[in-house]
Amino acid sequence: MDTRILKHGVPARLFPVVPESNKEQKTLSIVLATLMSVRPLAERLLLPLSVKVGKRSVLSCYTEVTLTNEIKGLKDRPDALLVLQSGKRSWSALIEAKVGRNVVGEDQLERYIELAKLNNVDSVITISNELTPSPEINPTVLTRAVPKNFQLFHLSWASILTTAFLLASSDEDPYENDDEAFLVSELIRYLEHPNSGYVALNQMNKDWPKLVSDIQTSHPLFAKSSEVVETVTAWLQEARDVALIMTRRLKEPVSIATSRSNLSNPSKWTETNAKDFVQEKVLSFELDVPNAASKILIEGDFLRRTIRVSMKLSAPTDRVSNAARLNWLLRQLAKSNRGKVIIRCITRGKGQNYGAMADEIDPKSDEIKELGDILSFQLEMSNDLGAKFNSRKKFIECLEEIVPEFYSNVGQYLQAYVPPPPKYEKAKAKEEEAVDELNKDVAKPLTSSVLQERPAWAVTWQTGAKLEETS
Question: Which H helix or E strand runs over 432?
Fold first, then answer.
């Protein structure tokens, strides 16, 4: 036990003996004990926190902790302490976990940040069923700024489950022994059970139906209103949940595509989304799938009560006609159900874009010929929800169904256009021609006409040299 920080603590147990009512302590203890026993899992879970677990690092986790320096009058205490020792360097974090629908309150989080600073603990990690796009974004909004040189992170139970799932699904064998593989599989089985306290995001915020109704009746919206801010926050949480679902389906890390500035300033990100939503009446996010042809755009259109999922591809520039460009795209959809896919052709010039179902497009039709040059394609699947759009649960269900369906039907088959390399034969011919011309110039006799083409000093020098040779 690290006596510099801890006054009292119990090592995290794989089989904790705690009251049935204390579900969060039980689940947290099992997760931390697994981290201490399975180095590959600790490496993957702490890497997004910019914490590297080396081969000689020692990870220690304690529950029921009392720290050396206490805050006077502090009645509650953190759920756990994590200490990573790497040679002479160490990194530590206080952990506060919640299960079910419980969340970490602002006052509690601020007290634990103060307690961590008092004991030279590097960070505080909150764990709950709340989802955020990145560990650097915490769902608990703080009035006071986080102290300098201090780290505040958030992990969801869903992200922990997904990390374990990716490890178990790895094509390589990342484990040091069979016991590690068994522990990870058991951790997955435990977290997936409802009694663990993990609850998947299965409904939007309580103001969702009212907001949908207000938009349908042209009721004015305000970006700073509580219902808009809470709706945007819930949407970004659902974006993270969809990314985790796709990660588990594809066995590859799928993330929300956004700028670094948004991740470093989540309140500004929410504010920007709220302004865009009030103006466009559409919520959107993008997913970044490894090696996919492009990012996947997901949109919730409140006016049309529709969910749209799409990808955009640049048209091949080495195809002269629109028909050839369309055929290039349609060949990629040979295994797709084209009756569910809309292809939109973005052309050169305004007002000439064209869209139709993939199974109805005829590349040789007059409509395609009369279009301007096709510059890019947008491939889209949509679901017109109608009244289901108003339902907090039905909307989530439909969204989490159409995104994997789109990738399965369209996204996995698409390949971005790559210009062909230059032909070697043509390049070689030009090079040989250039060499021939150079040889001709070198072989020219020094006639008077050639001398006239040369600079005066060169003519004088060359003439003088020849006179000396003859004498």
Answer: helix 424-443
